[in-house]
Give the backbone structure.
Amino acid sequence: MSVPIDQRIGVATPEGIELLLEPAGPVPRAIAWLVDFLWRFGVLVVLAFPLMAMGEFGAGLWFLTWFLLEWLAPAAFEAFNDGATPGKRAMGLRVVRDDGAPLTWRPALTRNLLRFADFLPMLYLGGLLSMLVQREHKRLGDMVAGTLVVHVDTRPPGRRIPAAAPLPPPRPLTLAEARTVLDYAERAPLFGAARATELADLAAPLLRPDGGPAPEQLIRIANHLAGAPSHASG
Amino acid sequence: MRQAEFERRHGEEWHWFDQWLCSQRAAARRLRARTPPADDFPARYRALCQQLALARARAYSPALVERLQALAGEGHRVLYGARPPRSHGLWSFATISFPRRLRAEWRVFVLACLLFFGPFLTLGLAVQWWPDMARVVIPASDLAQIEAMYSPDNEALGRPQAEGQFQMFAYYVWNNVRIGFQTFAGGVLLGLGTIWFLLFNGVYLGTIIGHLVQVGLGVQIASFVAGHSALELIAIAVSGAAGLKLGGALLAPGGRSRKLALVEEGRKAFELIGGAALMFAAAAVVEGFFSPLPLQPALKYAVGVLFALVVLSWLAFSGRDGDAAR
């Protein structure tokens, strides 16, 4: 495969393919944490009124709720809710194991028990440092549990190559060249006209001097590569 | 084969795959038990993986490759997430896995015991000879408050005021399990956090108990802690052992990368901290409901000794057959 130019990391599956995971950085994770903190805090505040009115039994329940919300609730969400606490879901994040498989109880609990170490020396500085020095953005808890926080795939609906009369390239293209041309053609509708021309001019060696505007030629070559029927357009 | 032909040939399969994944997600969102995979799902998933590999190798357009990659990724989650849990329940964990794990890790457990009980006994005894030492470790105002809690005039033994039993039980869970978890988590800082928590708690508890004995409240404190002390103190040491496992993985990973050692030892440490959490919870039940009962000290001592024997023999013998298999 080509040299990665983004943060994605490949995970080999038993089927012999490579899944690409996109680790999430500190900022979306911090926001997700804040969302989780706020709803848990809110639950405790709201519960405080009726429970305190119930006397000592209510106070006991309140302490137990606090304990469960602080240590176990995030782990339960991550183990049973598709790897996402409400905050992570809101931010489009998900916790998976290092091999891309869904989380189970043990790693979910492990990473949440170790949250305390990430908090040290204050305000999650340790966790932040740990995330910044690693490609996978793991905090300490993730390292022990063998987990990753990744962006959930929310790609835009499939882009398509604009239809045009197929045009064979002047010479056979290498795979990398072919992929680049296809990539260009799929994105062409998103570029402005000037940018489209600027990029297409880089492919000058593949173009015929008399073959019309560069973007148009590239799109026609892409149609040829993809195998579009020749009657696609005039 | 050109891309357009490839898409024509397999488009229907991909559509089925997409639809099926959507229905799975919808089922999960409605909090129903996840429907089991369709019988031919694994076969369809393998076919999809093959098509993804082909699409990559033939340099089909990135949009197509990404679409197949997204489908395969979701399929991977569903297929490998549907496996039944491997654990055999809490009971067998408590009676077999945890005691076995603790015996297998006896070295770190002994070390944790030294780090915790060492200062505990040292301070407890030192205060008998040098009573002023207690004020060096703990502020005098705090000591006075603790003395009041255990004074014979206090109706609710071992508490600031006459709080209810359930509330104190919940408080003990909230506080003690947290201390255990923190002791464990500190281990990932090269073991330093764990060592600090063990020493700190040893010094602190040893000083308090020693001070109360020294000012003549020995019977009160001993009869209060008799019931739960074995469970609670050993649970602290077990949490420490779990933390030291993490520290050990970083300091002496053996023939592994530190990253791998941390994950592997973390798995073992998790069994230890899980057991410690159970012990803390059980101790909180005893401390909340039994320890404050106004019974004869002799009776409480007897129960305490009995509990201690039960705890020790549980840790030493439970799940013995098969220990050698490890």
User: Anything to note?
Assistant: Chain B touches chain A through 63 residues (CB under 8 Å). The CA atoms of residues 213 and 281 of chain B lie 27 Å apart.
